[in-house]
Amino acid sequence: LPCHNSTSPDGIPYIFLNKTAETISAPLCHLFCRSLPTGSVPAFWKKAIIRPIHKKGSKMKPQNYRPISLTCALSKVMEKLIAYRLKEYFSVNHLFSPLQYGFLNDRSTTAVLLRTLQNWLSHVDQGGCIDCIYFDFRKAFDSVSLPKLFFKLTSCGIRGSLFHWIRDFLSGRSQFVRV
C-alpha cells in the first residue's frame, strides 16, 4: 500500500495498515475469507475519492489535471491479494501471451523496446525495410468492456466465487471529487 497519510473513503489511513500489518493480518484474513466465498464486496469498498492533481500548463484547463483515485484501504489490500493470485494462475497455466510486457515481473517497456529494436535491426541487416505506425491508446483502461472482460475471465477458467467477487468488485462503483 502507499505509505502516506492520505485517508481512504473507509476512514482508514493507508499508513495505519502499513504500520499495523503484522497485528491486524489475522482479523483481515478472516474478513477477506468471508467476502470471497460469497462473491460479494462491501459497498463502501467500491467508493473512491478523486483528487485532481495538476500536471502542467494552465490550471484553468481540466485536461492539465490527472485524477488520483483514493480507494478504500481494505479494498486495496484485497485487490492486491486477488491480483497476485490471478497473475500466479495465469503464469502457471501459460495464459499470458509471450508478447505481454505490461504489469508482469521481469518485463518492462524497456524490454519490449529492446526486443522491437533487435527485430528491426535484424530485418534491416537482411535488406528489409521497416514501416512503423504508432498508436496512442489514450485512456485505454477507462474503456475496457466489462462484459468482454468477464467473458475472457471465464474462458481462462476463472469461475465460481472468485469470478463473482471480481464481477461485483468492478460493478456499481461510485466516486466523488475532492478538491
Automatic annotation (TrEMBL):
InterPro entries noted in UniProt: DNA/RNA_pol_sf, RT_dom
Q: Which parts of the sequence belong to the Reverse transcriptase domain? A: 53-173
> Pfam families in the record, alphabetically?
RVT_1
Q: Does the keyword Transport apply?
A: no
Indicate whether Nucleotidyltransferase appears among the record's keywords: yes
Q: What is this protein called?
A: Putative RNA-directed DNA polymerase from transposon X-element
**Gene for this protein?**
X-element
Q: Which UniProt keywords apply?
A: Nucleotidyltransferase, RNA-directed DNA polymerase, Transferase
- State the Gene Ontology terms under molecular function: RNA-directed DNA polymerase activity
Organism equals: Toxocara canis
What high-level taxonomic lineage is stated for the organism?
Eukaryota, Metazoa, Ecdysozoa, Nematoda, Chromadorea
